[in-house]
């Protein structure tokens, strides 16, 4: 039996689950000063806006069948969800009426053209959520209200009982009326969600047989929502075709009056259910889905109001609210303390649509606001924003604080204090709580305690230091004659892990790569997630993987800054990739699906590279090695890859070539022993060599000795490969900042080695390893010295760069570390820019 899961907000970040408005734009407001806080600066008087014309309503009857009768004392609830506030926080629940023991109904009115997100709950002593046929909690079902009608659903199981029964598969394509594929469309069938790939294709396994409602929804609202019934047959595939028309954009001007105690220089944001309004469509920390740093910021008017003009798609159902934080913290409330979530169905209009709103209050309940003032160390990077994170029932998403100047930051928390008693808080840099924390609350330490009060509280904290921000040692960067060369990659590869909070910090990271490191290439590492082993389900998952718009935005910014861009897509696994491969059935059907999904993955990123103008695409990597011809499992033994693997890979490469016309590289792992190169390497344009070879077994190696060893490996293994292929080889190296890193083995405490990615942030500190920034610098210096003497090497790339924050941690990232100074010196000389 599965444990009962209480609908009580013990919610952490789930593994399953576009223009970005930079957080730094909030700094355009004048800096706060202490008199702004107590007493508050009154705003000018302005009239209450007229009540908007109400949207016509339509009634929807929901009929649902259950897998088993309810027990005595239980009831069934249809829960309409609020994704702007947080799915777990502000539902509207409707008690359903029994038709018989297994069938229930309720009729609910909604505004016309609403997109309703809902799920079913079995109400016992504690609420029990519905599950899908894979025993995963339903995030939400969707229905599009285009008129009155009936919605028929079936609950597969509850989270406290396993599913038993058959399922079917639905797959299809989503295109525009001209037949062009639509990417990143959310398709939901029976509570099962997925996103379309770059060919408009989607696949949903494990759908309950019978009639199901299918909704296709554009995350940014730019296509009209599509809805249609689909009949699913057990153990069969149901093909569907969906056509969605583009929606014209309408200039919508939001103007809002705010309470008189609003800090005038505090940024007021517009939180909403669309991608461009901060919704990530993911299960983030604490049951939230919005990120403050991704929300647009309003501008102040002379009369005390705030305004913003946005181009929004006609017909879009825009759920929104005004906030001094995110959709949950410091958002607007009604005078009685309830959450406010507004709705606008954007009308067709040639003229600007004017929306006039009034925030009743930022507060909820009788508790008085709490002001947090923090003084940070003078060594805090000037590009950093200080964030505040709260722990009411589990850590929620961080909130950016307001700058005071002179190393001071402030934030006043108004709501929802009515839901809190005692709770915790902590400070971090750039929203990276759990990685870039205040030293007093880092690692496994609890946050700082605080309780609500009827009297105003003003907390004044001094942050003595930041985790992983100790003063670095100097790095040796001079006294070397560097050979200039042409067409050389002097690059940095970003860490292959992602969080939606990263996007706001990408511009600063790219500026550092280009200006601080003098690099000419950045290698981006977008991912897809394996959410199931048998059959292998492989697709982008919001919150874990960057969405198409996120990566496209990063590529655009990098190219605008003068950087060449390579896309190196990879996979995320729910367990280590060696465990994943060992657990896979790897029979004929399994391999067919694996190659089908990998080809879709390759084509998706080929299209992304082509449409964004990326200068290279890199396929392969160690995680895909078991699928190569003659493949072996990570822990040894044959993988059982099909005999025609060569032909299958040739088909993958041909498909990628069809969609991307630029250079195509193959990522070949190298740990000091060169694997047998697959024959299809001859059809590619270069090798991206994933170098993690041992250079010394000493804990205090000498740079010259490591350089000699690196040269021996290059000469013995890689120069012959380069000569035989007549293609460039790019050395992409990863060495963490720990003692013994030159051995290329991070001890796991059990006689084995951890992968270098085990130290990627965010991660708990590994006490078995000793931080040693100089050890990383020495290895980088040795490798560059070896490359310098070998003109046939086509480039050098440092892997594992952590974009959102400088950290002097144990990872392979050199963001802000002494090793970065080495690249700063070497790269422009290798490129012939500096002599």
Radius of gyration: 28 Å
* CATH fold label of the largest domain: TIM Barrel
Counted up, domains total 5
Largest β sheet strand count, sense and barrel closure: 8 strands, parallel, barrel
What is the molecular shape? globular
| Percent in helix | 10-25%
Which strand order do you get reading across the main beta sheet?
33-34-37-39-40-41-42-45
Poorly predicted runs: 1-45
The CATH class of the largest domain: Alpha Beta
Tally of alpha and pi helices: 8
CATH-derived architecture of the largest domain: Alpha-Beta Barrel
Mean pLDDT: 92
The SS-based structural class is alpha/beta
Strand content: 25-35%
The CA-CA distance between the termini, in Å, is 69 Å
Secondary structure: number of strands: 45
Q: CATH-wise, what's the superfamily of the largest domain? A: Glycosidases
Q: Could you walk me through the main structural features you see in this protein, from its secondary elements to its overall organization?
A:
The protein is of the alpha/beta class. The strands form eleven sheets. An eight-stranded parallel β-barrel has the order 33-34-37-39-40-41-42-45, surrounded by six helices. Helix 4 packs parallel to helix 5 (645-659) and helix 7 (773-788) runs parallel beside helix 8 (818-830).
Which descriptors apply to this entry?
single chain; 835 residues; alpha/beta; Immunoglobulin-like; eight-stranded parallel β-barrel; six-stranded antiparallel beta sheet; 8 helices; 45 strands
């Amino acid at each position: 039996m599965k444990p009962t899961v209480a609908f009580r907000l013990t919610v952490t970040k789930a593994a399953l689950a576009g223009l970005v408005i930079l957080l730094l734009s909030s700094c355009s407001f004048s800096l706060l000063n202490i008199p702004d806080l107590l007493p508050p600066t009154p705003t000018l008087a302005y009239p209450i806006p007229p009540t908007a014309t109400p949207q016509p309503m339509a009634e929807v009857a929901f009929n649902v069948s259950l897998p088993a009768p309810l027990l005595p004392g239980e009831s069934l609830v249809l829960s309409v969800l609020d994704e702007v506030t947080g799915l777990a926080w502000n539902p509207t629940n409707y008690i359903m009426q029994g038709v018989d023991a297994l069938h229930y109904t309720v009729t609910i009115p909604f505004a016309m053209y609403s997109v309703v997100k809902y799920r079913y709950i079995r109400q016992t002593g504690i609420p029990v959520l519905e599950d899908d046929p894979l025993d995963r909690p339903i995030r939400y079902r969707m229905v599009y209200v285009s008129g009155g009608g009936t919605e028929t659903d079936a609950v597969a199981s509850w989270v406290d009982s396993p599913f038993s029964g058959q399922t079917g598969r639905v797959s299809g394509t989503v295109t525009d009326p001209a037949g062009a594929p639509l990417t990143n469309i959310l398709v939901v069938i029976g509570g099962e969600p997925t996103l379309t790939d770059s060919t408009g294709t989607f696949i949903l396994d494990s759908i309950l047989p019978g009639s199901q409602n299918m909704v296709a929804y554009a995350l940014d609202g730019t296509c009209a929502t599509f809805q249609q019934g689909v009949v699913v047959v057990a153990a069969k595939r149901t093909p569907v075709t969906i056509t969605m028309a583009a929606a014209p954009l309408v200039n919508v001007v939001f103007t809002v009056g705010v309470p008189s105690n609003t800090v005038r220089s505090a940024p007021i944001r517009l939180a909403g259910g669309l991608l461009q309004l901060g919704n990530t469509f993911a299960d983030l920390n604490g049951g939230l889905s919005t990120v403050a740093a991704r929300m647009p910021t309003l501008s102040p008017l002379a009369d005390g109001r705030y305004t913003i003009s946005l181009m929004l798609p006609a017909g879009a159902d825009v759920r929104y609210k005004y906030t001094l934080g995110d959709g949950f913290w410091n958002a607007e409330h009604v005078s009685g303390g309830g959450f406010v979530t507004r709705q606008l169905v954007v009308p067709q209009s040639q003229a600007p649509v004017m929306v006039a709103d009034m925030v009743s209050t930022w507060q909820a309940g009788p508790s008085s606001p709490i002001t947090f003032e923090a003084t940070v160390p003078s060594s805090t990077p000037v590009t950093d924003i200080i964030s505040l994170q709260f722990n009411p029932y589990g850590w929620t998403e961080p909130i950016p604080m307001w700058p005071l100047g002179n190393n001071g930051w402030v934030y006043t928390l108004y709501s929802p204090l009515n839901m809190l008693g005692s709770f915790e808080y902590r400070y971090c840099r750039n929203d990276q709580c759990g990685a870039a924390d205040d030293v007093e609350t880092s690692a496994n330490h609890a946050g700082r305690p605080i309780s609500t009060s009827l009297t105003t509280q003003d907390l004044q904290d001094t942050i003595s230091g930041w985790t992983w921000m100790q003063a670095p040692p100097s790095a040796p960067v001079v006294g070397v004659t560097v050979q200039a060369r042409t067409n050389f990659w002097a690059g940095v590869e970003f860490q292959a892990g992602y969080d939606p909070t990263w996007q706001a910090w990408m511009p600063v990271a790219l500026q550092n790569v280009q200006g601080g490191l003098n690099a000419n290439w950045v290698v981006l590492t977008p991912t897809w997630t394996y959410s199931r082993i048998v059959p292998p389900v492989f697709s982008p998952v919001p919150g874990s993987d960057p969405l198409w718009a996120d990566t496209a935005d990063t590529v655009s910014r990098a190219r605008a800054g003068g950087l060449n861009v390579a896309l190196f897509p990879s996979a995320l696994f729910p367990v280590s990739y060696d465990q994943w491969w060992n657990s896979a059935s790897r029979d004929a059907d399994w391999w067919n699906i694996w190659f089908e999904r990998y080809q879709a993955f390759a084509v998706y990123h080929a299209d992304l590279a082509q449409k964004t103008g990326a200068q290279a695409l890199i396929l392969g990597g160690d995680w895909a090695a078991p699928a190569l011809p003659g493949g072996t499992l990570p822990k040894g033994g044959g993988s059982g890859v099909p005999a025609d693997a060569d032909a299958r890979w040739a088909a993958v490469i041909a498909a990628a070539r069809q969609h991307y016309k630029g250079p195509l590289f193959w990522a070949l792992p190298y740990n000091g022993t060169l694997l047998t190169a697959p024959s299809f390497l001859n059809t590619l344009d270069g090798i991206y060599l994933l170098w993690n070879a041992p250079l010394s077994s000493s804990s205090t190696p000498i740079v010259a000795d490591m350089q000699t060893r690196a040269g021996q490996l290059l000469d013995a293994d890689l120069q012959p490969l380069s000569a035989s292929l007549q293609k460039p080889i790019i050395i992409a190296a990863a060495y963490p900042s720990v003692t013994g890193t030159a051995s290329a083995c991070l001890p796991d405490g059990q006689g084995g080695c951890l992968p270098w990615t085990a130290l990627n942030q965010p991660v708990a500190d590994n006490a078995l390893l000793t931080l040693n920034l100089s050890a990383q610098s020495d290895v980088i210096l040795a490798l560059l010295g070896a490359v310098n003497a070998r003109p046939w090497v086509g480039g050098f790339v440092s892997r594992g760069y952590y974009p959102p924050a400088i950290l002097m941690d144990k990872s392979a990232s050199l963001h802000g570390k002494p090793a970065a100074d080495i690249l700063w010196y070497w790269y422009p000389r290798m490129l012939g820019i500096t002599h």
